[in-house]
Amino acid sequence: MTQGRLIQPYATVVWGGENLSYGSASQSVLAQKVSVNLSNTSAPSCKFHFLPNPEGFAKFTELKKGSIEAPITITFGFPSGSFFEQQFQYIGMGLTTGNDPSIEVTGTSLLKG
After folding, report:
1. What is the reported pLDDT for 26?
2. pLDDT (mean) for 65-93
3. pLDDT for the residue numbered 2
4. Cα–Cα distance for residue pair 105/47, rounded to 1 Å
5. What's the CA gap between 53 and 62, in Å, rounded?
6. Which of 14, 48, 64, 96 can pair with 73 through a Cys bridge, CB separation 3.0 to 4.6 Å?
């Protein structure tokens, strides 16, 4: 076991009060490939993909219809250690079909100052 070294932090995504870190039907993580971009030249932004299965697509549709104005809260860190939390506003999505389907959600920081 390696101690004191960042190996794999956890990431949670909460949108409209829905914790997308767990899917009740599939028992899988609904929000995957979570990333946050912090830059000196532009507002912080985020991206994440919904699990490309019927539950993920249904949850995205539900949130887009009912919680589009609600903040997206992303937390990176460790359950018993330090963490980083940022809030974002939904600004768009990308849809990919075919052999590697995905729904990618993009957000921009609520605090742009």
Report:
1. 72
2. 89
3. 45
4. 6
5. 14
6. 14
DSSP-assigned states of every residue in 86-108: EEEEEEEEEEE-SSS-EEEEEEE
Q: CB–CB of 105/95 below 8 Å?
A: no
Confidence of residue 34 (pLDDT cuts 50, 70, 90): very high
Evaluate whether 47 touches 106 at the Cβ level (below 8 Å).
yes
* CA pair distance 107, 90, nearest whole angstrom: 4
The rounded distance, in Å, linking the Cα atoms of 33 and 18 is 18
Residues in Cβ contact with 9 at an 8 Å cutoff, skipping those fewer than 6 apart:
76, 77, 78
CB–CB of 25/57 below 8 Å? no
Separation between Cα atoms, residue 113 and residue 2, nearest integer Å:
39
User: Does the model's pTM come out above 0.85?
Assistant: no
Reply yes or no on whether the pLDDT at 81 is more than 70: yes
Q: Return the residue matching tokens 């490309």.
A: 52
